[in-house]
């Protein structure tokens, strides 16, 4: 196995039952498969997809890929139809919320929760839009703001 430096110090694994659905959906968003261990009848798989923009790389890690995901020690305590991403927001920075939205809005219109909007709090203003992926993960595509990084 070729070991590469970690590109991100935080890896969040999204546990899903179907890699093909994820690959189709996230490919429309511009992500490309960079690693895939195909699940077998007795072993879950692993999938990593990457989006590259002028802002850098965004990696998404998926675990499972088949019904074995429902037997994971923690998640097996919940019904199979529980939204996978309940109470989780995945924020993906993009150079232009408008351009990114226009690129995917027609194809993924059934997944859009909130179209592009201006947002602000006491100190910042930004534009973003929100979607839900096929597994229930809540995605926020936002123009870069200062999160103290």
UniProtKB/TrEMBL annotation:
Under Gene3D superfamilies, the record lists:
2,3-Dihydroxybiphenyl 1,2-Dioxygenase, domain 1
InterPro entries assigned: Glyas_Bleomycin-R_OHBP_Dase
Q: Report which superkingdom the organism of origin falls in.
A: Bacteria
Protein name listed in UniProt: VOC domain-containing protein
Species of provenance: candidate division Kazan bacterium
């Amino acid at each position: 196995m070729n070991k590469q430096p970690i590109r991100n110090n935080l890896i969040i694994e999204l546990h899903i039952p179907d890699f093909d659905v994820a690959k189709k959906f996230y490919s429309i968003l511009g992500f490309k498969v960079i690693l895939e261990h195909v699940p077998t009848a007795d072993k879950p798989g692993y999938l990593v997809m990457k989006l590259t923009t002028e802002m850098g790389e965004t990696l998404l890690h998926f675990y499972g890929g088949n019904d074995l995901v429902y037997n994971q020690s923690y998640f097996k305590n919940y019904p199979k139809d529980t939204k996978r991403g309940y109470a989780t927001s995945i924020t993906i920075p993009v150079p232009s919320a408008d351009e990114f939205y226009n690129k995917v809005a027609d194809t993924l219109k059934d997944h859009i929760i909130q179209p592009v909007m201006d947002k602000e709090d006491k100190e910042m203003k930004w534009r973003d839009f929100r979607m839900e992926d096929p597994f229930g993960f809540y995605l926020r595509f936002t123009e870069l703001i200062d999160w103290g990084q």
